Amino acid sequence: MTALLIFFTLLFPVGTLAVDSVQIRIPASDSLALAADSLAVPADGQADSLGLADFPDGHMADPADTSDFADELLRLSDSLHIRIGRWQQAPLRWMVEEGDLDGTIPASTPDSVFVRRLNEMNSFIPLSYNSIVRNFLALYSDRRRTSMGDVLGRCNIFMPIFEEVFSRYDLPEELKAMAIIESALNPTATSRAGARGMWQFMYSTGKKYGLKIDSFVDERLDVYKSADAAARYLRDAYDVFGDWPLAISSYNCGAGNVQKAIRRSGKRDFWEIYNWLPRETRGYFPAFIAALYITRYYKEHGIVPVVEPGLGPIDTIRVNRMLHFKQIEKVAGIPRNTLKALNPQYRHEIVPGKEGEFILRLPYAYVNHFIDREEEIYTWKADSLFNPVALKKLKDGMDGERIVYKVKSGDVLGKIALRHHCTVAQIKRWNGLKNNNIRIGQKLVIYRGGKR
Fold it and tell me: What pLDDT, on the 0 to 100 scale, is given for residue 394?
């Protein structure tokens, strides 16, 4: 049992990683115009609706691309896809679906001030400035002031966790701001594409990065483990690209699509490959710059973090027996809502301890009481709560995750079924299909794991 002592009511100190200097690029001409019509991408360079990019069989020879993991990363068939879009469960309608911000958003802050502040941040990751970045800065600092206050309040809770994780992998701590544009720091956010958790992992990519996802547990919702997986993905992506803007962009559309943009443009700089990236990815790195900026300069924009009720410090208990949140609530007096808030990865409020050892997070004030009454907790109504028939029904349901898949060029039912761990017959039954014919753009309802 290791005390984490994570205080949920600390004022948010945003740290920066200092370097000698950082260049702020202002294009001499506004070649990166925001009008969508001027940003054409070849049809085969666009990401599909689920962001499941097909990675190239090989990768470009480049001095930065020398890691042992590079080949494996580029062979992944299912990339991370975290659309800047509308979360089903998130309290915010956070960004625009397309990734670009058309037109010019009025800003109350002069360009010169934005440039000076970005320079003063001394970020390890280059923070460029141009009309695109300016639009996102204006969006966060002016238009979404109220929403950003809510997000900054959640920063108090989660950013110290991310700082610790990224420090463990010797990664720039600025990367923590990615969680803001991923999920508005909502641990249970779910996208229409099926990405889940604060770091918005798709099912396949979460599995590839060691996250347990089954009928009882979905570690994409575990704040600590999902952050660890995100850090490992970003480390691997940086080993491939040798450039943080490109690695960050790959988190949105997959390394394969970034590699396509590099090949087609002949360049390796984000702003030089911008026009060749999928549209929803173009705004991703500029949004990251704006998110990082606002965590540092929110006071200057009159934004007040909304402090959420604190749960105080927490501690961990190792569980290797079946345990239900109802048992803990009844015997130890810990409210189930608190247990769910601290342990959202347990899908049915059950810790499946008989399948292995699991971590349960509890408010520190309750830990001794839990230990003192541990045996009583485990035995309270255990026979009814863990009825073998009911447990088998839950287990047979797999993850029960319903997604809507948009058919893309080259798709056939067999390929779709294989990717989502179900059968062609099931897809046909779920969607009332009389034959195997599907068309590009058609939407298919799929239940991940095929159990329905």
Answer: 76
